[in-house]
Amino acid sequence: MDDITLRQNIIDELDFEPSIDAANIGISVEDGIVTVTGHVSSYSEKETAERVVKRIKGVRGIAQEIEVRIFGNHETSDDDIARRAVNMLDWNVSVPKGAIQVKVQKGWVTLTGKAEWQYQKNAAADAVRNLAGVVGLSNLIEISPSVSAADVKKRIEDAFKRDAELESQGIRVEVSGGSVTLKGKVHTWSERRAAERAAWSAPGIKTLNDQIAIG
């Protein structure tokens, strides 16, 4: 696919996405590498725009340069964002009670602490990313390993086999401590993302090094 066609496909998909206002988002493409510029009114819109771009066939990489601009008479104060974030974490049954700390600086939320599962780390981020006034999010929650590397490897490989989106024969899994490395080749970006999701579903994973090629 040529860059002009890919750019138009991305623009059309952004316009089609109801949860974002694409009027102020700019797209440029060079050799399949997409640069996303402009501004949106919330952090969740910024993340959604990135997800939309990633799911388009032909995208080989993304440079995310969207700015979050909070509109209104006044910005939400950091202490108010922090207070509401703590409440959201306390109310979320998927987040370990009292295990996550929140820091807010100029609208940027940083989460720290420990969790046993990746889904708990993701749930903590999901609980706060849509709060009014949030311009960015750093999820620094640590995953505490609770299973052996061999067990993790088997769980990931089994998850690959169950995933309908994924042809897993060309993917190799390497596990060292809480770090997982994926190698091999898939046909599309969505397959690569499916492999990442399957890998993150295993307990105790701290880092994921995705070396899967697309082609």
Count structural domains. 3
Describe the largest sheet.
Answer: 4 strands, mixed
* General form: flat
Tally the helices: what do you get? 6
* Sequence stretches where pLDDT stays below 50 over 5 or more residues: none
Query: Approximately what portion of the residues adopt beta-strand conformation?
Result: 25-35%
CATH architecture of the largest domain: 2-Layer Sandwich
CATH class identity of the largest domain: Alpha Beta
Radius of gyration: 19 Å
Mean pLDDT across residues: 86
Key words describing this protein structure:
Transpt-assoc_nodulatn_dom_bac, 28% strand, 215 residues, alpha/beta, Histidine-containing Protein, Chain: A, signal, 4-stranded mixed sheet
Report what the structure shows:
With 215 residues, the chain is α/β, with parallel strands linked by helices. The chain contains 6 helices and 12 strands. The strands form 3 sheets. Strands 1, 2, 3 and 4 form a 4-stranded mixed β-sheet that branches. Strands 5, 6, 7 and 8 form a 4-stranded mixed β-sheet that branches. Strands 9, 10, 11 and 12 form a 4-stranded mixed β-sheet that branches. Strand 9 and strand 10 form a beta hairpin. It is flat. This is BON domain-containing protein. It comes from Rhizobium lentis. Pfam families: BON. Keywords: Signal.
Q: How are the secondary structure elements laid out?
A:
Blueprint: H1 3-16, E1 25-30, E2 33-40, H2 43-54, E3 61-64, E4 67-68, H3 78-91, E5 100-105, E6 108-115, H4 118-128, E7 136-139, E8 142-143, H5 149-162, E9 171-176, E10 179-186, H6 189-200, E11 207-210, E12 213-214
Parallel strand pairs: 2-3, 2-4, 6-7, 6-8, 10-11, 10-12
Antiparallel strand pairs: 1-2, 5-6, 9-10
Helix pairs in contact: 5-6
